[in-house]
Design brief:
The protein is α+β, with helices and mostly antiparallel strands. The protein has 25 helices and 13 strands. Helix 16 packs across helix 19. The longest helix has 21 residues.
């Protein structure tokens, strides 16, 4: 007999409802994850008790979606959603049922769910309730719809993305009939909000199998939400540095990131917590195991996603956002290559300015997916600088060139930048990898040295500021900023000269040159 160790509070809710003569079970994703040996992020409970009866039994409840049968039972600070068995009515927007009706049948409630692995229920008293073969599909590592796949995807098109996302998070295959139906219904994704698609795509990218994005492409899904990726896959790279087309190179770079996260270096404020797979995916907004499992919760989540798209949470609050930024930077780092590609007389491909073009295209894509401005800015900046070279004129990595790189990239983004470059290199021609990695390793070591030594790499670190220049006779206005930039350029070349005395003397020389120059230029 299959047994699941229910949390004490979940068991308490189930026991209380059963004491009143009702049925009650843990249901959905929490059962699936427990059977897989994973730690569930949420515990949902289903019961034949009506919402009013649930509210009567527990003193502290919240009407999360009472018209759809859901009440949140609060036990201390923990909330558990308890939903009455129900049958969904007609789906009117390829996402939500027009109405739901309550039923006394657990089987009917499970029948409306998306995949067999999400359609199981459990209680200590009855054990596992598995009407649709979910346990079999768990053992076979299969994603299969409950009932007819065409019905399930016709009801809710978001399930199309969820199928591919689950296959990535769980490393499961999608069974053939479900695959066929996904392809047949792919265009219905256009009816789903971009916020929901973004959430599913992000979970896929954060999973241990980001290469399942190829499955989405093969089924026609990326044509709907990321057509640029289709174009990347259709762009060969006839160049000694590459052995893959642009799209496959990108997939290999994403795979390299699995298990690797940003490490603290030189003042980076947020570092990764090392989560991968389903646990990593759960950092994104919660999506119910079935959209009609709690229609109110689903609609609230849709609204929350839309609101979150305009917010800018700080990176220091946790690693989830930093990891998301890195994944999208890698996904889109070469998105400019199809547009930038030229081929010379010898048949060799070149991609001049692809980083600049890619940064602009990435910003357009992320805006289309309704990401917040902080994420758009960070990803675009990382892409703009992803091809940065640390070698000087004599092809060697020097402290001077690295110091300039650190200044341009910013200490807080340096390790993210290095990891992006590392992933990029490992997805190129392996014959050329050792020398490229050596240069990157040298640059990393020198960057650590620069930061540890406290070299000036930003205007904030200059020994003088705007007030000092005004006191020295500079007029307020643009000349102040230009002078500070010139002084920063000077100390990047001569870090030992970042003293108040030296910089005020140079500022005086620049002011004199400024006064003499008809075009008001600033010269060193």
């Amino acid at each position: 007999m299959v047994t699941i160790k229910l949390p004490e509070k979940v068991q308490y809710i189930i026991s209380e409802l059963r004491a009143d003569g009702f049925e009650a079970f843990a249901v959905g994703g929490c059962v699936r994850d427990s059977l897989l040996g994973r730690v569930p992020g949420d515990w949902d409970i289903t019961t034949d008790a009506a919402p009013a009866q649930v509210k009567q039994r527990f003193p502290h409840t919240i009407d999360t979606g009472i018209e759809h049968g859901t009440v949140t039972v609060m036990l201390g600070r923990d909330g558990f959603e308890v939903t009455t068995y129900r049958i969904d009515g007609e789906y009117v927007d390829a996402r939500h049922p027009k109405q739901v009706s309550f039923t006394g049948s657990l089987t009917e409630d499970l029948r409306r769910r998306d995949f067999t692995i999400n359609a199981m229920a459990y209680s200590d008293e009855t054990g596992l309730i598995d009407v649709f073969g979910g346990m079999h599909d768990l053992r076979q590592r299969l994603i299969r719809c409950v009932g007819r796949a065409d019905d399930r995807f016709g009801e809710d098109a978001l399930r199309i993305m969820r199928a591919v996302r689950f296959s990535a998070q769980l490393d499961f295959s999608i069974e053939p009939e479900t695959l066929r139906s996904i392809a047949a219904h792919s265009e219905n994704l256009r009816r789903i909000s971009v916020e929901r698609i973004r959430t599913e795509l992000t979970k896929l990218l954060l999973s241990d199998h980001p290469e399942r994005l190829l499955t989405a492409q093969e089924l026609g899904l990326t044509r709907v939400f990321l057509p640029e990726f289709d174009r990347m896959l259709a762009t060969p790279q006839e160049n000694p540095h590459h052995i893959y087309n642009v799209g496959m190179h990108t997939i290999c770079a994403l795979q390299y990131l699995v298990g690797r996260d940003v490490r603290p270096v030189g003042g980076i404020k947020a570092s990764a917590d090392g989560r991968t797979g389903e646990a990593a995916g759960s950092a994104a907004a919660h999506i119910p195991e079935h959209p009609a499992e709690n229609s109110a919760r689903t609609q609230a989540a849709d609204a929350a996603d839309s609101t979150a798209a305009t917010q800018t949470p700080g990176y220091a609050a946790g690693s989830g956002k930093l990891r998301t930024i890195l994944r999208y930077a890698v996904l889109l780092h070469d998105v400019g290559k199809p547009e930038a590609k030229t081929v010379d007389e010898s048949g060799r491909a070149h991609f001049y300015r692809h980083a600049d073009i890619g940064a602009a295209r990435a910003a357009e894509i992320l805006r289309r997916l309704k990401f917040d401005n902080d994420t758009i800015s960070a990803v675009s900046r990382l892409i703009e600088l992803h091809d940065y070279r640390y070698t000087s004129e004599n092809k060697t990595v020097s402290e001077r060139t690295v110091r300039r790189a650190v200044s341009r990239i910013g200490a807080e983004w340096l390790e993210t930048h290095f990891l992006l470059q590392e992933a990029d290199l490992h997805a190129q021609n392996p014959a050329l990898l050792p020398d490229k990695l050596r240069q990157l390793t040298e640059a990393r070591a020198l960057a650590d040295k620069v930061l540890s030594a406290g070299h000036c790499i930003s205007l904030k670190m200059l020994a003088v500021n705007g007030r000092d220049l005004i006191a020295a006779g500079y007029p307020s206005g643009k000349s102040i900023g230009a002078a500070l930039e010139a002084l920063l350029n000077y100390v990047l070349e001569h870090p030992e000269e970042n003293t108040r005395t030296v910089l005020l003397a140079r500022a005086a020389e620049m002011r004199e040159a400024l006064c003499k120059n008809e075009n008001k230029g600033v010269f060193l």
